[in-house]
Design a protein that fits this description.
With about 325 residues, the protein is α/β, with parallel strands linked by helices. Helices cover about 30% and strands about 15% of the residues. A 12-stranded mixed sheet has the order 7-8-9-6-5-4-3-2-1-10-11-12. Helix 1 (about 45-60) packs across helix 9 (about 290-305) and helix 3 (about 105-110) runs parallel beside helix 5 (about 140-150). The structure holds S-adenosylmethionine.
């Protein structure tokens, strides 16, 4: 088995690919109301280019791929892309992160293209608040997408909740309670400082300890690191519940020491860390007709630049330039 190691001896096997910078929501903490300056269509990697990159990287040791965005389901023919990625030798785990808006109609086709699991981002269970956060009136559509994902057998169906103080922190228990009767895997994620236009303030980040304490106040949490395709989440469950409750703490207790990922932006830049603008441009080489060996070298270059950890909690921390919607989260 091929192993890709970075300069800190971390095994890198996971590529998160943003397939578009377009999004059909305007979440207040992620995108300005008027949207962001969009990358011209010609600047976005084509499906052929994405497939080539994944094929070459899979031979070198990448085995997990997640599609994200923007909103991946707004990219035309995304189902065809999934079908082709699923056939690439060496890719043993293919997943997708979506806001769920188009999911009700997509879910059956995603399954038939070979997708096994899905992550859905949802920050409120209240229709009016959903509208406020996302600036779109679409809670019912998203909920229908969640129900459909369960119905068509996507497993696990994870719900990612960014908990923000004064924004949705009064819904933590409602999200946790969802796991009692539905096989949903709710994961709380700390609010992070990303993107130069983003309005993050440190006091708005609710720490995982604070969130967990609230949930444990209702009923003890059992287990730890239950196997739900784990990644950085610490996962527990309430006794007797069908789903699980997970916690991801990039801010208060980072997990950089076990980071196994690289990101590919929709305009073909390899990013070594969510918070670092130190990117390696592969689009330029792809379009110049580079050979596979050159692509491998570019991957090596990215690995050599991957920082030991982020610096959010240091006084010299500076937010990255790119918006989350063009990195992919
Ligand atoms: N449109 C897709 C979606 O909604 O899942 C994929 C892209 S979206 C940028 C990916 C994830 O990043 C979402 O779960 C979103 O809530 C999360 N996100 C955006 N900004 C964030 C921030 N500052 N801190 C934590 N998570 C953030």
């Amino acid at each position: 088995m091929v192993r890709l190691l970075d300069s800190f001896n971390r095994k890198i096997e996971y590529l998160r690919i943003s397939i578009t910078d377009r999004c059909n929501l305007r979440c207040r903490y992620c995108m300005p109301e008027k949207g962001i300056e969009l990358i011209p269509h010609t600047g976005i990697l084509s499906f052929e280019e994405i497939i080539r990159v994944v094929t070459v990287f899979a031979k070198l040791g990448i085995s997990k791929v997640r599609l994200t965005g923007g909103e991946p389901l707004v990219r035309r023919d995304v189902v065809a892309l999934i079908r082709r990625l699923n056939q690439i030798q060496g890719i043993r785990d293919l997943s997708l992160t979506t806001n769920g808006l188009l999911l009700e109609s997509f879910a059956p086709r995603l399954v038939s293209a070979g997708l096994k699991r899905i992550n859905i981002s949802l920050d409120s269970l209240r229709s009016e608040r959903f509208h406020h956060i996302t600036r779109r009136r679409a809670f019912d559509q998203v909920w229908a997408g969640i129900e459909k994902s369960l119905e068509v057998g996507l497993e696990p169906v994870k719900l990612n909740v960014v908990a923000i103080r004064g924004f949705n922190d009064d819904e933590i228990l409602d999200f946790a309670r969802l796991t009692i009767e539905k096989p949903l895997h709710v994961r709380f994620i700390e609010y992070m400082p990303t993107g130069k236009h983003q309005p993050w303030k440190p006091e708005e980040t609710l720490t995982i300890d604070q969130i967990k304490k609230k949930i444990e106040g209702v009923m003890p949490l059992l287990g730890k690191n239950l196997p739900v395709h784990n990644g950085p989440a610490k996962t527990y469950r309430w006794k007797g519940s069908l789903g699980t409750i997970g916690f991801i703490s990039p801010v208060s207790r980072h997990f950089c020491q076990s980071c196994n990922r690289l990101r590919l932006t929709s305009d073909g830049k390899l990013r070594t860390c969510l918070f670092s603008d130190d990117e390696v441009d592969i689009r330029e080489y792809l379009r110049d007709g580079c050979n596979d060996r050159k692509l491998g070298e570019l991957l090596e270059t990215a690995l050599s630049k991957k920082p030991q950890g982020h610096t959010i909690n240091n006084h010299y921390f500076k937010k990255c330039q790119r918006n989350m919607s063009s990195i992919g989260g």
